[in-house]
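Just wondering, does anyone understand these tokens?
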Amino acid sequence: MKNTQDKRVLKTRRAIREALITLLRDRKMEDITVVLLAETAQVNRKTFYAHYEKVEDVGWDLINEFVEQIAAYMEQARAKKKPITAATFVELFAQAYPLHPDLFRDIFTAPNYAFLSQNIQIIMKREIMRYLHIPRRSPKHSHVISFVIGGLFGAYRDWFASGQKMPLTELTELLSNMVSTYMPTEV
């Protein structure tokens, strides 16, 4: 594996990730080959294999990139002594959405992005439970958190499906108030 801090490496990996995002708009993950992905990213197969072993690794790279953004935001919230709840993720979405509007639309609406959406929900749940010190085997809290996160994802899907008629700031406030009402804040 190459030095991941080298600007050329970062540029190539970004091109490959963006190519995957583009291809997922029209194809399922399992229908995307290394040849097609490399061609779309405008790199050769050998370059692809210098960075990834298989197409699925690029998908995990996307998920990890999103997780790193979530972690950085959560660290900022912790530093400010701000409680981390599902509302924290609503705020994170409001901050991150303008940076990647097409990706977020696809994550919430395109069936081919289901793997990303599902993994993001799992990570959100894990981080909220970890922050609240909820044991993994606490079904009551686990189910409530899953319900709230699933509701958030459903609300965003509806927002995109409606053509984003409600301003994002208004949606953020509405969802923050709703999750604050239903999410456990302590065990």
Observations:
- The two ends are 43 Å apart (CA to CA).
- The mean pLDDT is 82.
